[in-house]
From TrEMBL, chain A:
Gene3D superfamilies (UniProt xref): MetI-like
Descriptive protein name: Binding-protein-dependent transport system inner membrane protein
Gene Ontology biological-process entries: transmembrane transport
Organism this protein belongs to: Limosilactobacillus frumenti DSM 13145
Any one annotated GO CC term: plasma membrane
Domain ABC transmembrane type-1 residue range list: 56-258
Family as reported in the entry's similarity comment: Belongs to the binding-protein-dependent transport system permease family. CysTW subfamily.
Taxon lineage: Bacteria, Bacillati, Bacillota, Bacilli, Lactobacillales
Automatic annotation (TrEMBL), chain B:
Enzyme Commission numbers on file: 7.6.2.11
Catalyzed reactions per annotation: ATP + H2O + polyamine-[polyamine-binding protein]Side 1 = ADP + phosphate + polyamineSide 2 + [polyamine-binding protein]Side 1
ABC transporter domain ranges (all copies): 6-236
Functional note: Part of the ABC transporter complex PotABCD involved in spermidine/putrescine import. Responsible for energy coupling to the transport system.
Similarity section: Belongs to the ABC transporter superfamily. Spermidine/putrescine importer (TC 3.A.1.11.1) family.
UniProt keywords, alphabetically: ATP-binding, Cell membrane, Membrane, Nucleotide-binding, Translocase, Transport
Descriptive protein name: Spermidine/putrescine import ATP-binding protein PotA
Subunit structure: The complex is composed of two ATP-binding proteins (PotA), two transmembrane proteins (PotB and PotC) and a solute-binding protein (PotD).
Classification lineage: Bacteria, Bacillati, Bacillota, Bacilli, Lactobacillales
Positions of transmembrane segments: none
Pfam families: ABC_tran, TOBE_2
NCBIfam families named among the record's database cross-references: potA (TIGR01187)
Length: 268, 363
């Protein structure tokens, strides 16, 4: 028993120092105004100001769009990967970009999308003229989806890989076509992977700020951008923390919605 | 003679360089109970997979109801399978699993409910409709798998070791149940097992498979009484297999001693093997015995004693006897000419049948 307790120590320390303490700090900070006085005004401001509410709606909307686009691309990708001979290798290629720093990738896209970037050069070459690509919603969505795709593909791939091939044979054996098999066997069994993917993409997308600025050109202002502004520019830590708390609540809501609804082994 | 529902013609199967099935040909008559019996890895599941359409034969043809079906996809075949690993859908409960095939066919809700109920009753799982699969024991899952296949009333039902997870009593019950069901519904069963007792008890026809080849096909009695070769004799039931020499028709020499027998059609002085079943050997006093042996071990098995003894040439004999003897005692062993079954080396099934026919006609 004692030995087991020793192994718990690093984990417990980590949780306390890097998970619980920051959460408590954020919650604590959110009750102080810019002059360091205790107040609940930050929350009142958030709830009554149309700016913040709009920002929240925009954040959720973009996060939703990014998640949806990512899912639509990732599911078929994972499905194809699983049937390839060297699936682990191809999966590695999909995951590879995540090893590169986010900022580097973002700057690479600036290089591609800018007025004199490679894409415009190509467009000019085929006589389609030069276009404003950077700082558009489309480029923002594109880059955000590009960055999130591996995080969606991986859990879906794993969920699909876990499906016992006999189940697919059983479904065909019972007369189901390819499509019926997909709908009633493969899709429901891969759902946990899809949910995990949604969690892994939607929540970070809510608080994206680097890409919104560098690619979206601050046309898209999300809660992430707002937090950054409050902490770094206006120095209103209280308001920044309040939005942080809101994001954390949003996170829990998403986790709850995408959580396992059907308990394993139990009744519905 | 019924008509053939299923035919294999020179079917071969390779996985890469690994030859799994070698030139398999057989006919399956409609409405009968067939058993594929063979050791692990002999290719039983592979044969079922080819029948069901999950795998393609590398060579040869498969006919179903007279039609070549090599290229017919699995979901279009009138065959259902009880999988060796059950393959129940984990995200559905028992009733949903059983109803799956009927739902796909678009059967109306009320009929589905009735038939699911019936099928679950047949496998003794009344009242388990709403259970999750994960909350079922191995044996219960196996029975759900049987119900899920049988509810569709296919023309051919493939069962891959469908009773292996059940305890002895339930297993015997289910054997009777399956057999009854098969007669009732007139479905052709192809049952895979490596349990020879199960095969002998249930089947109309047994196909013995070893190493990707069919060794022998026949009724349980045929296969038990007249095994074609060493492998079959050894695999089915217990046996004493001894090398011998065929002196002339109806006379065989075992260990230098001549015995009358009922086999014929071989060359003079041909080297053969002789099978004597342990239950055909009777123990008497040494002076009355055809062989004299000393008892080494004795094991009480409920119905009889399993005895081993060695004869004067140190050959070991297995004897099943309802009478008790004493370890270390000298006894005599007797048997009748009909109890001796002679097997030639490397005789094909066709030659074997022809030879049996030739001298049985003479009699
Ligand atoms: N997908 C595959 N790739 C390569 N070899 C395979 C494959 N499936 C089966 N085999 C080989 O084919 C042989 C026959 O397998 P099969 O599953 O038909 O055996 P079986 O008679 O059903 O055995 P068991 O009683 O253990 O179930 C085995 O040697 C197995 O290793
Ligand atoms: Mg098998």
């Amino acid at each position: 028993m004692r030995q087991k307790a020793v192994f718990i120590v690093p984990y417990a320390l980590w949780i306390v120092l890097f998970v619980i303490a920051p959460l408590v700090l954020i919650l604590y900070q959110s009750f102080f105004n810019i002059d360091g006085q205790f107040t609940v005004n930050n929350y009142l401001t958030y709830l009554t100001s149309s700016v913040y509410l709009k920002m929240t709606v925009a954040s959720v909307w973009y996060a939703f769009l990014i998640t949806a686009v990512t899912l639509v691309i990732s599911y078929p990708t994972a499905y194809v990967l699983i049937h390839l001979r060297n699936k682990q290798f191809w999966l590695l290629l999909v995951i590879l970009p995540t090893w590169i720093n986010l900022l580097l990738k973002t700057y690479a896209f600036i290089g591609l999308f800018s007025r004199n970037g490679s894409i415009n050069q190509f467009l000019q070459f085929v006589e389609l003229g030069s276009h404003q690509l950077l700082f558009t919603d489309a480029s923002f969505m594109f880059v955000a989806a590009y960055i999130e795709i591996p995080f969606m593909v991986l859990p879906i791939f794993n969920a699909l890989a876990e499906i016992n091939p006999s189940l697919i044979n059983a479904s065909k054996d019972l007369g189901a076509t390819q499509w019926q098999t997909f709908r009633s066997v493969i899709w429901p069994l891969s759902l946990p992977g899809v949910k995990a993917g949604i969690q892994a993409v939607f929540i970070p997308s809510l608080s994206l700020f680097m890409i919104t600025r560098l690619i979206g050109g601050n046309r898209v202002i999300t809660l992430g951008t707002a937090i950054e502004e409050h902490f770094l520019t206006t120095q209103n830590w209280g308001m920044g923390s309040t939005i942080g708390v809101i994001l954390i609540i949003a996170m829990f809501i998403v986790m709850f919605i995408t959580g396992d609804t059907r308990q394993k082994g139990g009744r519905q | 003679m019924g008509k053939n529902i299923l035919e294999f013609r020179h079917v071969g199967k390779k996985y890469g360089d690994n030859v799994v099935l070698k030139d398999i040909s057989f006919d399956i008559e409609a409405g009968k109970f067939y058993t594929l019996l063979g050791p692990s890895g002999s290719g039983k599941t592979t044969i079922l997979r080819i029948i069901a359409g999950f795998d393609d034969a590398t060579s040869g043809d498969v006919y179903f109801d007279g039609q070549r079906i090599n290229d017919v996809p699995a979901n279009k075949r009138q065959v259902n399978t009880v999988f060796q690993d059950y393959a129940l859908f984990p995200h559905m409960n028992v009733a949903e699993n059983v109803a799956f095939g009927l739902q796909i066919k678009g059967v109306d809700k009320k009929t589905i409910q009735e038939r699911v109920h019936q099928a679950l009753h047949m496998v003794r799982l009344d009242g388990y409709e709403e259970r999750e699969i994960t909350a079922m024991s191995g044996g219960q899952r196996q029975r759900v798998a049987i119900a899920r296949a049988i509810v569709n009333r296919p023309k051919v039902l493939l069962l891959d070791e469908a009773l292996s997870a059940l305890d002895h009593k339930l297993r015997v019950d289910m054997q009777t149940e399956l057999r009854q069901l098969q007669r009732q519904l007139g479905i052709t069963f192809i049952f895979v097992t490596h349990d020879q007792e199960e095969a002998l008890a249930m089947s109309d026809q047994i196909m013995i498979i070893n190493d990707g080849k069919i060794q022998q096909t026949g009724t349980p009695v045929d296969i038990y009484d007249e095994p074609l070769n060493h492998f079959v004799a050894d695999f089915i039931g217990e046996s004493n297999i001894v090398p011998a020499v065929m002196k002339e028709d109806y006379l065989v020499n075992i260990n230098g001693q001549d015995f009358e027998c009922v086999d014929a059609g071989m060359k003079t002085n041909e080297r053969v093997e002789v099978v004597l079943r342990p239950e055909d050997l009777d123990i008497t006093t040494p002076d009355k015995g055809k062989l004299v042996a000393t008892v080494d071990t004795q094991l009480f098995r409920g119905v009889d004693y399993q005895i081993t003894a060695h004869d004067l040439r140190n050959h070991e004999w297995k004897i099943n006897s309802i009478h008790k003897t004493t370890v270390g005692q000298q006894v005599g062993l007797t048997f009748d000419p009909e109890d001796i079954h002679v097997m030639r080396y490397n005789e094909s099934e066709a030659d074997f049948d022809a030879r049996l026919d030739s001298y049985e006609e003479e009699e």
